[in-house]
Design brief:
By secondary structure, the protein is an alpha+beta fold. Helices cover 36% and strands 30% of the residues. The chain has helices at 2-18, 177-189, 194-207, 211-224, 231-243, 247-263, 267-279, and strands spanning 29-36, 39-46, 65-66, 75-78, 82-84, 87-89, 92-100, 105-111, 128-135, 137-151, 157-174. Strands 1, 2, 3, 4, 7, 8 and 9 form a seven-stranded antiparallel β-sheet that branches. Strands 6-5-11-10 form a four-stranded antiparallel β-sheet, with no helix packed on it. The relative contact order is 0.09.
C-alpha cells in the first residue's frame, strides 16, 4: 500500500511539472516575408496593442529610443545589399529602432547588433548603419495593434511602413534588381560559364561518356580561368587527357596543378597530383 501511494505521488508530481498552462501572448509575435524585385526582406517583431493607453508621448516618451515593437527587438533582414533612405546597407540582419523625436518627426534606424531584449543597455552610435528622418502622419482612426509592413512594391523599390495608435511613418528603400537581372542576362546570353564546362567534363569522365567532348569542355574551362587558374580544375584536366590517351598533356596539366596546389598550401591536391605523376612515370 505504501509503495502504491508513493507511486501515485511521484506520478502526480511529474504530471504537475510537465503541465504548462498556455495563454495568449500579450504582444503576439509576427513574421513578414516579402520579395521586392529579386531581394528577400524578412521582418520579425512582436505586436503590442494600444489597450486603452496613450502610446506615443506617454507610454513611449518623446526623445527616447523605442524598440519598434515589444519584447525582443524587431529585426529586418535583407538578402542583398540595399539602400535605406538613400544610405547603402549591406545584406544582413539589423535591429529596427525608432527615436521618437516628436509627434511629427521620428528617426527610424537600422542597428548592427540585432540580439537585444528591447533596446541595448548601452546605445552605440557606431552600430547605427542607416538613419531615416521621417515625417509622421496622423491617421483618422485608431490602429489597435502595431503593424509593420512593406508596401508600394515595385521592381526595384518599396516602402517599409510603421503604423500604430494614430501614427503612421514610412521609409523608402531600393533593391539591386536591375543589377541582378543584368547579371543574369549576361550569364545566360554569354553562354556556359567555366564552372558549367568543368562540371560537364567531369560528369562525362566519371560516367564513361564521350571522352573527346570531355577534353573540349575541360580545356575550355581551363582557358576561361586562365587569369585565375584553379588547381582542382587543372587536376581534372590531367585525368581527362590521360583517359583520352594524351599522356604528355596529362603530365603537363598535373605538374601545373601540383605547383598551384603547393602555392596555395593545399596538401590534398599536392598528394593527388604527385600520385598520378608517379603512376605516369613523371615523378
Amino acid at each position: 500500500m505504501k509503495k502504491t501511494l508513493l507511486f501515485f505521488m511521484a506520478f502526480a508530481t511529474i504530471t504537475m511539472v510537465n503541465a504548462q498552462v498556455k495563454t495568449p501572448q500579450p504582444s503576439p509575435s509576427a513574421k513578414l516575408e516579402q520579395k521586392v524585385g529579386l531581394t528577400d526582406v524578412t521582418i520579425e517583431y512582436s505586436r503590442p496593442g494600444v489597450k486603452g493607453r496613450a502610446i506615443f508621448g506617454d507610454l513611449e516618451p518623446w526623445g527616447t529610443v523605442w524598440r519598434t515593437g515589444a519584447n525582443k527587438n524587431t529585426t529586418v533582414t535583407f538578402s542583398d545589399d540595399i539602400t535605406f533612405a538613400e544610405q547603402e546597407v549591406k545584406a544582413g540582419t539589423y535591429a529596427l529602432y525608432t527615436r521618437l523625436n516628436s509627434a511629427k518627426q521620428w528617426d527610424i534606424m537600422l542597428y548592427a547588433d540585432s540580439n537585444n531584449w528591447g533596446t541595448p543597455r548601452e546605445w552605440d552610435d557606431s552600430k547605427v548603419v542607416a538613419t531615416a528622418k521621417v515625417e509622421v502622419h496622423e491617421v483618422p482612426f485608431n490602429v489597435e495593434t502595431l503593424a509593420i509592413d512593406i508596401n508600394q512594391i515595385k521592381n526595384d523599390s518599396a516602402v517599409l511602413e510603421i503604423i500604430w495608435e494614430k501614427s503612421y511613418a514610412a521609409v523608402p528603400f531600393t533593391v539591386p534588381t536591375d543589377k541582378k537581372v543584368s547579371k543574369s542576362i549576361e550569364n545566360v546570353m554569354g553562354g556556359p560559364s567555366s564552372d558549367d564546362y568543368f562540371a560537364s567534363a567531369v560528369y562525362y569522365l566519371e560516367s564513361g561518356k564521350d571522352i573527346k567532348e570531355a577534353v573540349k569542355w575541360i580545356d575550355k574551362a581551363v582557358d576561361m580561368d586562365k587569369d585565375k587558374p584553379k588547381f582542382w580544375v587543372i587536376h581534372q584536366q590531367a585525368l581527362i587527357h590521360a583517359k583520352a590517351g594524351n599522356k604528355k598533356g596529362a603530365i603537363e596539366a598535373a605538374k601545373t596543378s601540383l605547383k598551384l596546389a603547393k602555392d596555395n598550401n593545399y596538401a590534398p591536391y599536392v598528394a593527388k597530383n604527385e600520385k598520378v605523376l608517379k603512376e605516369w612515370g613523371a615523378l
